[in-house]
Design goal:
43% strand; globular; 4 helices; homodimer; ASHA1/2-like_C (chains A, B); alpha+beta; START-like_dom_sf (chains A, B); Alpha-D-Glucose-1,6-Bisphosphate, Chain A, domain 4
Chain lengths: 159, 159
């Protein structure tokens, strides 16, 4: 019998401008997926613990878009993008950029896999315009935000 | 005095999953840009000459989306995507996929440069998930569609 690995793996491919993220959750795929598309749930877990999130738009459907502000003691940061495809319980493809650097855009694909026994694995692929842009994002501390966000998602899914 | 180069250059980077396209037009940047965002104009030039285009949705604005059908004697082909950003007369960032292969998504950035004297240069960057996906798209004959489409755009801009 397997045990869920709650470790978040974050991998930067040395030969391609990508970041791959993998994480497992002790919750059914429908719940994990819903936590990614329902803005009232998204705002409770996305990003590092020290930030609060205000959502301005979050139409998580094929052809939809989103825009939100993250705030901490130092200031506020607006992020936005569009949803290329939202395939319920299976896949979300979206763009992403920080308003402060609007010319740096990533394409993000998240796939959801039902592991059985009420467990779910998600795998994310972020595609950058260049290896330099990818390395800058990794160096900016994205890893902390991803890990802490998924810890908050664990807590939300356990409610 | 420089002359507009109407040759379309299409470059596949050997080390990155990208295709770069460059083309100049004998028309002001406002007109070239408008031909990319007004669906009544887009349907007159986008794609190879032997296809007709039916547009189902074309909201060329930040957070908008599009969907259209290309038809020829052999069948019909649906394409769709979302607009990450539309920055008037400067830049369009959008996703793109063919409904027949929905898991293969590209991120496309088009920049518009005013060359003066009523001339415009456009540069496109298409970002693929892998070099293999990029090579498959190039091998599928995208080059013919791009070149013929821009010839049709020349004709439209000369009206």
């Amino acid at each position: 019998m397997s045990t869920t690995t709650r470790e978040t793996t974050i991998t930067a491919d040395p030969a391609a401008p990508t970041v791959r993220i993998a994480r497992e959750f002790d919750a059914p795929v429908a719940n994990v997926f819903r936590a990614h598309v329902d803005p009232d749930l998204v705002k409770r877990w996305l990003g590092p613990r020290n930030l609060t999130m205000e959502i301005h738009r979050f139409d998580a459907e094929t052809g939809g878009a989103y825009r939100y502000t993250h705030r901490d003691d130092d200031g506020e940061y607006v992020f936005y993008g569009s949803f290329h495809e939202v395939r319920p319980t299976e896949r979300i493809v979206q763009t992403f950029s920080y308003e402060g650097f609007p010319d740096s855009v990533t394409l993000e694909t998240m796939t959801f896999t039902d592991l059985g026994d009420g467990r779910t694995r998600i795998e994310g692929l972020s595609l950058f315009e260049s290896i330099e842009a990818r390395d800058a994002m990794v160096a900016s501390g994205m890893e902390v935000g991803v890990r802490e966000g998924y810890e908050q998602l664990d807590e939300l899914l356990a409610e």
